[in-house]
Amino acid sequence: MKFNYTRIFHPRLQHGVIAVILAALAGPAAGEDALMVDGARIEQHIIELSAFGRNQQGGVDRVAYSEADLDARRYVSGLMNQAGLEVRIDAAGNLIGRREGREGRRPLMIGSHIDSVPGGGNYDGDVGVIASIEVARVLNDSGTMLDHPLEVVIFADEEGGLTGSRGMIGDLTPAALEVVSHSGLTVADGIARIGGDPHRLAEAARAACSLAAFVELHIEQGAVLHDEGIDIGVVTGIVGIRWWDVIVEGIANHAGTTPMDKRRDPMLAAADFIKIVNNVIRSEAGTQVGTVGRIRAEPGAPNVIPDRVVMSLEIRDLDADKMQSLFDKIRQQARQIAQRHGTPLEYRELDVASAPALTDERIQNVIAKSAEKLGLSQKRMPSGAGHDAQDIARIAPTGMIFVPSVGGISHSPREYSEPADMANGANVLLQTVLALDAAPPECTIASAND
Ligand code: GLV
Ligand code: MN
Ligand code: MN
Fold first, then answer.
1. Contact 108, 438 (CB under 8 A)
2. Ligand 1 pocket mutation, candidates 165, 221, 354, 390, criterion most atoms within 8 A of CB
3. How far is 366 from 181, CA to CA, in rounded Å?
4. Is 241-349 in the same CATH topology as 5-238+356-438?
5. 3-state secondary structure of 234
């Protein structure tokens, strides 16, 4: 593929091309014989991947199951082949590249996702995928045989509710398959479109303790590492996420002839609801967050008082009980809105929920030690973003590595991570894989989904 950088690349990516040359010259500290990733190749692959679904702002609209998603999946399949991986698609639509290890060992798994939110950036998920393929490539090119098979996974539809990883832990319910994804297709139709099979999902499910370990590298998506000048985040836990559709019923009427005191306006009720969400979430100490990120008025015209408003509600926290109690509090306070405006409120929870998860402390230590060996600074920290790792943590010892996001911006075309930081993260991932291969943690998980 030939690229005209100045014409098609976001200025940050152009900057990245220059920065990667500097990064390749500098590189982190490592022993003479240590295997190292190729930072320039990682940056080149990130640039190439950014072409699929590129939007006018320099980011990507590459929602799961779209044409752009399919094209990007073909591109990364090619990279996996070049890295010597045997590629297949499981029934949940996950792309999996595998290299064999010694007979009878359970696989080590690494990976992330390449689907984006609408109006997404070029680093969320992509960095972990490209770095994982790079790790496989370095092992392949150096003729390094691991004891364990290595599987590189590109999870399907991460941004629609961790769909691929839910499939991998046997948690994709009929209700989850009916959810309409960002692409407009139901999850079931989307899975079929990308080569999975929604009728054979059991085949994608992995049993508890069937993986030796899972490690996901990801951009932080917050500003902590960047602001504090720290190279690597060792993730301690990942927030749970719950989504609801909140439906407010009113009475449609003429916007010109209906006096202000004679209306049952669901839009006004929605405005009050949004304020209640903000107040309730902020009323308690802690790092919980709550968001109304989508709203639709029906029929939706400037001169019609709507008869129905549908909005989203999202709540995140590391504590599942706290998420429930915050929701109960919102619902309790929102009762007076219904009374005040004469507009009943109804809540429909979407089956996209992901439970909070702690990462495995032993893997945290391996990641920290790998960073230390490479001369990189590090910090233990929780993740406020959701990740496939939180699902896989229910069936396997799991760890996560963060690299800095410039300015903490994410889910935006302005998302950016420095090439040197991506290379650092990939080197930590490589060293972590080697260490886990030599000494895998014992699996103490009793069974998935309990
Ligand atoms: C996943 O990107 C999330 O919404 O946190
Ligand atoms: Mn994301
Ligand atoms: Mn992500």
1. no
2. 221
3. 37
4. no
5. strand
CA of 320 to the centre of ligand 1 (A): 17
CA–centroid distance, residue 168 to ligand 3 (Å): 17
Give CA–CA dist 126/81, Å, rounded: 17
Ligand 1 atom nearest to CA at 124? 2
Q: Which residues surround ligand 3, an ion (CB under 5 A)?
A: 124-125
| Residue from 114, 163, 313, 411 to probe ligand 1 pocket by mutation (most atoms less than 8 Å from CB) | 411
241 CA to centre of ligand 1 in angstroms = 9
The CA distance from 277 to 265, in Å, is 19
Q: Which ligand is nearest to the CA of 62?
A: 2
Atom of ligand 1 nearest to the CA of 384: 5
pTM: 0.86
pLDDT tens, N- to C-terminus, the chain (450 residues): 333 333 334 445 555 445 444 444 444 555 556 899 999 999 999 999 999 999 999 999 999 999 999 999 999 999 999 999 999 999 999 999 999 998 889 999 999 999 999 999 999 999 999 999 999 999 999 999 999 999 999 999 999 999 999 999 999 999 999 999 999 999 999 999 999 999 999 999 999 999 999 999 999 999 999 999 999 999 999 999 999 999 999 999 999 999 999 999 999 999 999 999 999 999 999 999 999 999 999 999 999 999 999 999 999 999 999 999 999 999 999 999 999 999 999 999 998 878 899 999 999 999 999 999 999 999 999 999 999 999 999 999 999 999 999 999 999 999 999 999 999 999 999 999 999 999 999 999 875 443
Ligand 1: lining residues by beta carbon, under 6 Å: 159, 385-386
Domain 5-238+356-438 carries which CATH code?
A: 3.40.630.10
Domain boundaries 241-349, CATH class:
alpha beta
The set of residues, in sequence order, having a beta carbon less than 8 Å from that of 240 and lying 6+ positions away, is 316, 317, 318, 319, 320, 323, 353, 354, 355, 356, 357, 390
* Lookup result for tokens 């752009």: 68
Question: Structural domain boundaries of the chain?
Answer: 5-238+356-438, 241-349
